[in-house]
Amino acid sequence: MRRFSLWLRGKPMVADSMLAFALFLADMIPASQSNNPLVFVAFAVLICVPVAFRRRYPVLISWILVSISFANTALTTAIDDTEAGHISLLGLGISLYTLAAYVGRKDAAIYLAALIVDSSLSLYLIEQERVVTAAFVSLFYALCWITAEFTGARRAYDDEVAARLAVADYDRERSAHEAVIAERTRIARELHDVVAHAVSVMIVQADGASYALKTDPHAAETALTNIAATGRQALGELRRTVDLLRTDETPEQLPQHGSAGVAKVAEMMRRAGLAVELEQTGQLDDIEPRISLGVHRIVQESLTNVLRHAGPDAKAWVRVERRADDVLIEITDNGFIAPRFTGGGGNGMVGMRERVAVLSGTLVAGQRPDGGWRVRATLPLQIDD
């Protein structure tokens, strides 16, 4: 039964047709009391058929019904057939309910005024049991209006709930989409920092090895050894990074690089042929792991850019200072010369800016007035999550 009710809810025309047929059957009960059964049945059909279309054309059907009611009152009075009343005229109240629930109070109020006029005329022309009939009609119309108000309020509540659910679904989908984008950005940033640094160092050393292969075999051998060591280190860091990206990244899982990690990056660059002066001030080994990783990546990416773009006589100065509330990272070089190799889409600076933004820090990068390039970043020691 419940399944049938839910099915009818989605098919209003079927439900209204069943209601119209039920009214017609009810109208057949007093038909035998009519002096003109054919006229009675004809009016029963005229009254019941429009009810089947009450929700499709609510305003039109309402005025059709009230017009038929006026005509029925006039005709039954003219032919003196007032013994039998049409039960199907309950459709007038049903139309009042439909207007109040589905159209609006203004249309329903105008229609109710027409119904009052129709009922008053009927009571005036039909002199039987006026008080009882008037009380029943008034109570019936009031009940139809109250029911319509309740239904309208219920529908408004359901519509509001549906709208909120739609907004919640949209927000959930948007949040999921933003989370996917953020995760992709995080993965791209980590992989770029690991791979680009190692590949840049290996390319520079490979170029040096090819130049020195015939003239200085020992230098070439040293360069190849450095390439192998850089590759192994990059592979190990890449595996560790991928393992971290497969799980929820927490500060405890992040690698703690500290001052030794920064010194290791500087030493690797020196072996690649870049002169690096490193100055570290303050305790860098007890700061939060994600801050430590941020310092490490900024130094690594900045020195990689110097190695790629500052030419064969490049020199870089690295200063990492732990201050009271933040860590200062500053990398400067001796200016642009012809780059050792071209390539790359500038994603390194983008990645650095994204990383600094995630850590609530600041980053300034650009050419110095006296020549050279400087990257200056500050990372707060306390991050508000």
CATH homologous group name of the largest domain: Histidine kinase-like ATPase, C-terminal domain
CATH fold field value of the largest domain: Heat Shock Protein 90
Which blocks of ≥5 consecutive residues have pLDDT under 50? 338-345
CATH architecture of the largest domain: 2-Layer Sandwich
Question: What labels describe this entry?
Answer:
385 residues, alpha+beta, Heat Shock Protein 90, 5 strands
What does this structure look like?
The structure is a single chain. The chain is of the alpha+beta class and 385 residues long. The protein folds into two domains: 2-128, no CATH class; 179-380, 2-Layer Sandwich (Heat Shock Protein 90). It is built from eleven helices and five strands. The protein has a five-stranded mixed sheet, covered by helices on one side. A hairpin with a 5-residue loop joins strand 4 (362-367) and strand 5. Helix 7 packs antiparallel against helix 8. The chain is rod-shaped and about 130 Å long. It starts with a helix and ends in a 5-residue tail after the last strand. Residues 338-345 have low confidence and may be disordered.
Structure described in brief:
With 385 residues, the chain is α+β, with helices and mostly antiparallel strands. Helices cover 66% and strands 10% of the residues.
Write the layout of secondary structure elements.
Blueprint: H1 2-9, H2 12-27, H3 37-51, H4 58-78, H5 90-103, H6 105-125, H7 130-212, H8 217-245, H9 258-271, E1 275-281, H10 289-309, E2 315-322, E3 326-333, H11 347-358, E4 362-367, E5 373-380
Parallel strand pairs: 1-2
Antiparallel strand pairs: 2-3, 3-5, 4-5
Helix pairs in contact: 2-3, 3-4, 4-5, 4-6, 5-6, 5-7, 6-7, 7-8, 7-10, 7-11, 9-10, 10-11
Keywords: ATP-binding, Kinase, Membrane, Nucleotide-binding, Phosphoprotein, Transferase, Transmembrane, Transmembrane helix, Two-component regulatory system
Protein name: histidine kinase
EC number: 2.7.13.3
